[in-house]
Write a structure and sequence with these properties.
Strand content: 15-25%
Helix content: 25-40%
CATH superfamily of the largest domain: DHBP synthase
Order of helices and strands: EHEEHEHEEHEHEEEHEEEEHEH
Low-confidence stretches: 335-339
Radius of gyration: 20 Å
Number of domains: 2
Largest sheet: 11 strands, mixed
Number of helices: 8
Length: about 350
Amino acid sequence: MKTRLLQVDPDDPSPQAREEAASILRGGGLVAFATETVYGLGAVATNSAAVERIFQAKGRPAGNPLIVHLEEIDQARPYVADWPESAACLAAQFWPGPLTLVLRRSSLIPPVVSAGRETVALRVPVTKVARMLIAAAGQPLAAPSANTSNRISPTCAAHVLADLDGRIEMILESGPTFIGLESTVLDLTTYPPRILRPGPIGPEEIERGLGRGDRVEFSHHDPSSAQAPVSPGMLPRHYAPLTRAIRLESVRELTNLACPERTAVVVFAKPELPDLPGFAQRVDLEDPETAGRSLYSIMHRLDECGLELIVVVMPPDLPAWRTIRDRLIRATQSSDSGH
């Protein structure tokens, strides 16, 4: 199979491009497209065979559920067993946007989408390309990030092509994503609601959105558990470069680190770095918004540089850096601790 790269205007995708991509999806094929967070790999969510192809193309564990992308809020109702007040309230405030809600699924969602669980993860993306594609396909799209499982998420079409060329039918190229990190995932099947994956929308915003004095908790998947994760992004090793990567909590630890010659260091929040020779590259990311938008593209670039080691000096353990820290911890987890 040859993967076709089709350029589209992000503000005004042509009817021809829309129909070509939708025809592939309706026929059980896979199409990569840009959301505001990362590029997704879409298949019609109600087509079990097409969804299984996502797992095959990515090499994704069958126990890792997918997020279903909708065109608009009203499209959610047939695909959930119930639509609680909390879901209606949050969807009205944050959709379209980078908030995924986990709810009880209806029989219209095949078990393969949710790794056999009775839940489904839903969101409405921001980009016109994503929403026009869902509308043209006539069905919601199951769409994880468009990359090999556990590797760095793609924020431009070139990342997708380099990784999945020959494994998917089409990539809609509409420029880089503008958030750069995956959506927040919130489980509304429990009380209090639980954040399963931190993302651009924080717990403080969600609590204000609920408006009832509700608290939001954080949940962490136990890697030793035989139970499948409720949400994507919960496996211990994820978002990882091919190059060996380690993390340090402080720049002071650099002074005691024996680094190979081809080592890059990535630092955050303007730390005072010791004057150390030997780093092939240094990357500075000063604020959380810039870091979020740039992190994956920088990691992709470093992965292409023939490095022996990437050293990540972690950002401060503060709410503004919570999502960045989550992605970096998983990206630097040793390969024998994940899937």
